[in-house]
Design a protein that fits this description.
Helices cover 29% and strands 25% of the residues. It is of the alpha/beta class and 97 residues long.
Length: 97
Amino acid sequence: MKNDLAICAIVGEQDARYYIQDWLSFHRALGISHFYLYWNNQLPQPTGDDLSVKPWPYSGGQIVAYNDFLNKGWKEKYCLIFDIDEFLCCDDSFDLD
């Protein structure tokens, strides 16, 4: 059963090139139900039913992007705002469901 937890993140070129696939795989394995990605680079965007990707061509626009996301809302009950180099880590007693 999937939980009701999403993650929002801005993905720059370094993030997309080196981290994004591992980052998505890691959080999918935890059961994150959806990812909202602000795509701030020219590399091909990832696809998937659990991804909402918005092109974000603005430099230095991290706060503006997160404000855009918070103003538009999300369908899950909870949402984390992460950088791509941040990973959700919990001890064994924590259950996302």
